[in-house]
Amino acid sequence: MRPVFDWQLRSRRLKLGARTLIMGIVNVTPDSFSDGGQFLDPGCAIAHGLELLCEGADILDIGGESTRPGSKAGVDLEEEKRRVLPVIAGLLRQAPEAVISVDTYKAEMARAAVAAGAEIVNDVSGFSWDDHMLSTLADVSCGCVLMHTRGRPEAWRTLPALSPDAVVPLIRRELEGLARRATEAGIDRERIVLDPGFGFGKRLDENYPLLARLAELHGLGFPLLSGTSRKSFIAGAMDSHAPGSSRLASTIAATTASILGGAHIVRVHEVLPLVDAARVADRILKAEVDLPAKASS
Fold first, then answer.
1. Would you kindly state where each structural domain of the chain is located, as residue ranges?
2. 267 counts as catalytic
3. Which has the closest alpha carbon to 71: 43, 41, 29, 103?
């Protein structure tokens, strides 16, 4: 059974658990692993975000820097602002009620995005790549997604391998530490969503035990976000290693598994087919809850 939460954002609350929420991805980057360069122009990014809202996205996640495996050079803060802030402003002009998330690990980018109207900061580093992020999140009082990651992107391919039975205990322990640090720093529990970080410092096959045992992370007492869309590990299960934009079927499979494992929010590139997949998965979860208790023998 998926637990129910009220997620406190900057200016509103979202009910989590009654149905799966869809977070649509808008990458304003030239080098994202799956769609880099398609929406680098602010006008194109705004149009894409509006299209995702029309298709059923509940949240738009706007990012101005790629954190794909192997990436080394970070994007300058001012360049990231130049990419992201006009998109946030443009989307809110045309869709004032849109729930905007900013995908950044930089504290000053997070502060600027919230000032521009973002409701959520999605920090893929779990506030570990910027010493000021934790205090900034406490100060701006927005919704927070804290992701588990191991090391920096340039080191992911050389990290020591994890045994299948070690993956979930490690991630659970480290997510618990992230959440504890956040609350001790003054971030209210009701503002926090945890993300186990599929693909972020996990070797390809290390993601499958995490996906299979995702429900165990409910024991942490926080809502869960899952981002498996177009990730390399799902391509590894295919006969041919298709590029990211050609991984729709496998993305649907992994995303559905996430929902059945209890993910409250799924972060996806293609919204429309994932809205339909989520509806089916939600029906399965509801049927599980509605099943009558087995008569005792």
1. 5-290
2. yes
3. 29
SS3 for 133?
helix
One digit per residue, pLDDT tens: the chain, 297 residues?
Answer: 799 999 999 999 999 999 999 999 999 987 454 544 466 688 999 999 999 999 999 999 999 998 766 555 578 999 999 999 999 999 999 999 999 999 999 999 999 999 999 999 999 999 999 999 999 999 999 999 999 998 887 778 888 888 999 999 999 999 999 999 999 999 999 999 999 999 999 988 999 999 999 999 999 999 999 999 999 888 777 665 555 556 899 999 999 999 999 999 999 999 999 999 999 999 999 998 777 765 444
Catalytic residue among 83, 150, 202, 231: 231
- To the query of whether residue 191 is one of the catalytic residues in this protein, the response is no
Q: Which two tokens stand for residue 108?
A: 């000053």
Q: List the catalytic residue out of 267, 279, 283, 294.
A: 267
* Cα Rg of the chain, angstroms: 18
Q: Which CATH architecture has domain 5-290?
A: Alpha-Beta Barrel (3.20)
